[in-house]
Specification:
The structure holds 2 protein chains of 2 kinds. Chain A is of the alpha/beta class. Chain A has 9 helices and 6 strands, in the order H-H-H-H-H-H-H-E-H-H-E-E-E-E-E. In chain A, a hairpin with a 2-residue loop joins strand 5 and strand 6. The two termini of chain A are 58 Å apart. The termini of chain B are far apart. The chains are: A alpha/beta, B mainly alpha. Chains A and B meet through helix 1, helix 2, helix 3 and helix 4 of A and helix 1, helix 10 and helix 11 of B.
Chain lengths: 326, 318
């Protein structure tokens, strides 16, 4: 492969790869792929920009001699008197390799890198299909603690004491023999006042709770006893309910929960019960649902069920792929 | 705007791109470092830095991640270049396997992910076991010749001498250091970086495709059924870590939520994954002979599997 062609081809590959990164970031599509938390999105943008800069640099310097910036036709006039025995290859490496592949190998490499990348960039729907959601749905109840971002729970003793009246509102459960000590320390059971501190309410006074937070209330009896019967507004994507739905009065609302990238996302969902028939809806469409919370026992799990009064179409939120507390 | 409606193929593209967006910046970082190592680092510098005693050098290599924290994607091109620069293979492999775990970023993320769930125990166990295992692997690798491990193009260089044999070829450096100016070095560095990025990127792409197929075309919930005992849970979690190919900086957040599994199984997941996964198998293929990559994958699986099954028997965290 000619000396000039290698860096030109490398520049071409790098520029295309970098452009995809910049394209997805610039048009906001990266929001569907990487969480805004942390620096993942910025890293992707920086990578794209740096790749494009290197590509331009390589293209500009493609004609530079030797491909490595120094002359190999030097004289070996130094002293070879060191006292070990090995072959001296005077075509040796000067701290870098000259293992540039041939044109065929380069083209194959380019194809392996570029064909999947460009195909994916052009044809990706920026969303998972319902088939994927069904396959990965959290059909069981909660089997562990809620992730920190979606956790509802008692604040620290100091905070609680400052807010005063621990144990007020008569909505507590799970009383134990230690409660007196806990209350005295400001660590009383979870109350409606705690919920009010942690969750915003809409103009109707309904608690605006994320599907993921609602799902995880199923793992905490104390919180269930506060949330049960409360007016709730939530938002998510709606799909048919295929479990325990003999009267066909239920749908399922879900949000994706991802840590870093959408490939690690899991759909977290709860059933939504209607008193009458299910209103018309578009599968996988975005809806705001208002109703009251209830809980059902499904085998050993407690499942939160939203008894809906209203389900109305809503805009897809900006970070749709990333469930977050509303 | 997206161009197609969601579909199984669309699911694959979606997951594929997201893993690529997450991992490629680290590969780029690694390849840029690799390019600058190539252009600016004298061939024998690693020999000068590491202790002359090989076992001491291996033990120290396992801790280099504390000073040079790099994830598993970034480390492959760096290692490739360091090996070319004369870093002994045993030390290189120890650093390569340990650095994605034994580093402050991963320590912090592991601690955060297990907050409220014995985080100090999980963090120290992960780092401690990873360090001991990687140093052990380094000792084992030291018993073999570089020729049985490295690919041919890496062997053809004259700077593959073990510490102590000191065939340093120090004279090689004088031309590189003395004959060229800054711009030439920069061209060399970026050309090397570009070549490494494309080369390693090819293996990375293949690995990511396989991972994306698994994540989008198979039922992920099947795994939970194996969580009831460590006898099954540990190897299953290691297998899962192999297939999922998560970044070591974020895998703890995934493991922490796998509540069907014991802490031993989660530790197996967190230790094996950064050392060996689908994409790494292909990326390691850019440096090592296929037989060695297979032996490393199987050896680590058996060793870590044994350790964590025993660990689960003798220790249950609070």
């Amino acid at each position: 492969m000619s000396q000039r062609a290698t860096p030109i081809l490398q520049a071409f590959i790098l520029f295309l790869v970098g452009s995809v990164f910049v394209w997805f970031y610039t048009y906001g599509r990266i929001n569907a792929y990487l969480t805004k938390a942390g620096s993942f999105q910025i890293q992707a943008l920086l990578a794209g920009v740096v790749l494009c800069i290197i590509a331009v640099f390589l293209a500009i310097t493609a004609g530079q001699k030797g491909g490595c910036g120094h002359d190999h036709d030097h004289d070996h006039d130094h002293d070879h008197d060191h006292d070990h025995d090995h072959d001296h290859d005077h075509d040796h490496d000067h701290g870098h390799s000259h293992d540039d592949p041939g044109l065929g190998t380069m083209m194959l490499t380019a194809a392996v890198v570029l064909v999947p990348l460009l195909s994916a960039a052009i044809f990706t729907p920026d969303a998972y299909s319902m088939n994927w959601v069904e396959k990965n749905l959290s059909v069981k109840g909660v089997v562990g603690p809620a992730p920190e971002a979606f956790k509802l729970g008692k604040k620290s003793g100091e905070d609680s004491a400052r807010e005063g009246n621990p144990g007020e509102a008569g909505t507590t459960a799970g009383q134990s023999k230690d409660d007196g000590v806990a209350d005295a320390a400001g660590w009383g059971p979870y109350t409606i006042e705690d919920l009010k501190q942690q969750v915003d309410r809409n103009e109707k006074g309904e608690f605006m709770m994320d599907v993921i937070s609602l799902f995880y209330t199923g793992g905490d009896e104390e919180i269930q006893n506060v949330v049960k019967g409360l007016p709730i507004e939530t938002m998510g994507q709606v799909m048919p309910e295929k479990m325990r739905n003999p009267e066909n009065k239920r749908v399922r609302v879900f949000r994706l929960m991802m840590n870093c990238c959408i490939a690690d996302a899991r759909p977290i969902s709860i059933p939504v019960q209607f008193d009458e028939s299910i209103p018309q809806y578009k599968e996988m469409g975005w809806y705001k649902i208002r109703g009251t919370m209830a809980y059902e026992k499904w085998d050993e799990f407690t499942i939160p069920v939203l008894h809906a009064k209203v389900m109305e179409v809503t805009e897809e939120p900006p970070q749709a792929a990333f469930g977050q507390r509303q | 705007m997206p161009f197609t409606d969601p579909s199984p193929l669309g699911d694959f593209f979606f997951a594929f791109l997201s893993i690529l967006f997450e991992g490629a910046p680290y590969i780029l970082l690694g390849t840029i470092i690799s390019g600058f190592i190539d252009a600016y680092l004298p061939s024998n510098v690693m020999d000068r830095i590491l202790p002359r005693n090989r076992y001491g050098a291996i033990a120290l290599s396992g801790l280099l991640g504390i000073v040079f924290p790099v994830c598993e994607c970034a480390i492959v091109p760096v290692i490739r270049r360091l090996v070319k620069k004369g870093l002994p293979v045993s030390c290189a492999i120890t650093y390569m396997l340990a650095a994605p775990i034994v580093n402050p970023i991963v320590a912090l993320s592991t601690f955060s992910a297990f907050a409220g769930n014995d985080p100090m125990f999980m963090m120290l166990s992960r780092i401690g076991i990873a360090y001991l295992v990687t140093v052990f692997v380094g000792f084992v690798v030291h018993q073999f010749s570089a020729g049985s491990i490295l690919r041919e193009f890496l062997l053809s260089k004259p700077d593959h001498h073990e510490v102590g044999k000191e065939q340093q070829h120090a004279e090689q450096d004088h031309e590189v250091e003395g004959s060229t100016g800054g711009p030439d070095r920069l061209v060399l560095a970026l050309r090397t970086a570009a070549r490494d990025f494309i080369d390693v990127g090819m293996y990375f792409t293949i690995g990511v495709m396989i991972t994306a197929i698994y994540r989008t075309q198979f039922d992920q919930g099947l795994i939970d059924r194996f969580g009831s005992s460590d006898g099954m849970g540990v190897p299953v979690m290691m297998g899962l870590a192999f297939i999922l190919s998560l970044c070591s900086t974020s895998d703890a957040f995934i493991a922490a939520n796998m509540t069907s599994f014991s802490s031993a199984a989660k530790l197996a997941f967190l230790t094996y994954g950064p050392m060996m996964d689908v994409k790494l198998v292909f990326m390691y293929g850019a440096i090592f002979k296929p037989k060695f990559v297979i032996a490393l994958a199987v050896g680590l699986f058996v060793l870590l599997g044994f350790i964590f099954i025993q660990w689960g028997i003798v220790y249950t965290p609070a």
